[in-house]
Amino acid sequence: MSKEVVIVEFYANQIKSSFQKWLVLFSYSIIAMANVMQLVSYSPIWESAAIYYGIPPQDLQWIGNMYYITFFVLAPFCIKPLLVRLDISMHLIGVISALGAWIIWIGGQSYLMTMIGLFIIGISDAMILIVPVCNQIVNNQVLSEKWFSIYQRLLATSLGSFFQYIGMAFAYGFSSFYFDITDEQSIVNTKINEMNLIIAIFNTVGAVLLLMFFRNRPPHPASNSDNIVKDTIWKSTVKMLTQEESVIDLLSLGICKSIKLLKVIGLGWVYTTIISFELYPFGYTQAEVAINGTVYQISGVAVGLWASIKLDSQAKQGIQPDYDRYIKIFTSIGMITLILEAFIIEYLEFWMLLFVNFAMGVGLNSFYPIAIQAYIEKLYPASELVLVTGLLCLANMVGFVLNYLIVLPEFEQFGLWIGCLTITPGYLYILLNYKTKYRRFEQEI
Predict the structure, then answer these.
(1) Rounded CA separation 434/252 (Å)
(2) Range with the lowest mean pLDDT among 128-137, 262-271, 396-405?
(3) Quick count: other Cβ atoms within 10 Å of Cβ 441?
(4) Membrane-spanning regions, if any (predicted)?
(5) Cα–Cα distances in Å, from 192 out to 155, 160, 187?
(6) Pick from 332, 334, 324: which is nearest to 373 by CA?
(7) Any idea where the domains of the chain sit in the sequence?
(8) Is the pLDDT of residue 141 over 50?
């Protein structure tokens, strides 16, 4: 074979591999987006959805709580399958997610069938959330580490993670504009059935894409990290839960993402629900609440992707990515905005509220993938999946508690203040004491 033919085949394989990894990420992102839609689709029509199911409005909170509960109960058992065969695990996730969505649609106004469907979706979500990290977060981390180089890993993690925010924004916005406050309950019932059918179809499309495009790993390792022997699941768990600094980080980057990060992440997930409860009493329309919720989600995605590209660029130049500066800036924006909103929300004009929720999205959402990478750096070579699972388990427990409290009559008017109190300890730790140790970066660069 001539030298020219070898060169042509080499570049052809490079292009094919590069195209394939983005297809893998795209197929994962679609199912992640579809899987989370049911979580917020009823938020704008809370009272009408409760009537649809024939239950008290407070009981509707278990739609969101089912996601939180299934994750921190089942996620630890999902680590091993993802490590052994990522592709088969993801194919199964797609099928389970679609099955759960179809059960909800077929069940119609049966609250029991809906909860069964949500439980099944929750099983798939327990794996989906951590996949982006298999070098990042549980799901996104594994995906980004196997398929993307050190120079693209944070961007891949961000895309995999942020598609869930896009799914939440889409479902929330669609529900807000599809339903009219003047609709009779019979029309609402028909529209809910149609909405659940759309979500089921979307989940099915995601499952088909996973079956078509998702593969276990590329033909050649994307980074040195994929070739390095990592700590076992047990050793990684012990390291995460016994090292004092790790435990504090877990409680703040989970309160904020490791001790602080966890709480902030948890609050980020339930803030969309908090918006609904806080704004309606001040006379905001359903459409205005939806626009604010969408701005909150999308601003975090846009700024988070920009920050990820900047940090990946630093890594490409051989410079340690400045995770700490971005984490502290973003969490400070979120904390300051949250306190400001709690004090002046009743006096804000609509356009000012949009600005506040834009800043809130930047503060509570943008730092998420960055914090995950920083946390993994500190405990490397601990298993990324174990670390992200631990982090997200804590975040889900916080989300469960907050989601439960804010719908109680005694607490619903204090949703923002509850959020402030929840993240303050973690935020102060991150601001004053958090520092990334670049163990993985120094190994790979």
Answers:
(1) 9
(2) 262-271
(3) 20
(4) 22-40, 60-79, 86-105, 111-133, 154-175, 195-214, 329-348, 354-376, 385-408, 414-432
(5) 36, 28, 9
(6) 324
(7) 3-444
(8) no
Which CA distances in Å does 223 have to 78, 87, 189, 335, 385? Answer: 24, 19, 51, 36, 17
Cβ-Cβ contacts under 8 Å for 373 (sequence gap 6 or more): 136, 153, 154, 157, 321, 323
Is-contact 43 272, C-beta < 8 A?
A: yes
Determine contact, residues 243/375, Cβ cutoff 8 Å: no
Do 68 and 124 meet the contact criterion of CB atoms below 8 Å apart?
A: no
Place of tokens 């490409």: 316
Contact of 329 with 425, CB cutoff 8 Å:
no
Residues 6+ away with beta carbon under 8 Å from 102: 117, 200, 203, 204
Tens digit of pLDDT for each residue in 346-374?
A: 788 888 888 988 998 888 778 778 888 88
189 token code pair: 């019932």
Per-chain mean pLDDT for the chain:
76
DSSP codes joined into one string, 430-442:
HHHH-----HHHH
Q: Is the peptide bond before 281 cis (omega within 30 degrees of 0)?
A: no
Residue position matching structure tokens 């925010």: 165
Mean pLDDT of 94-119: 92
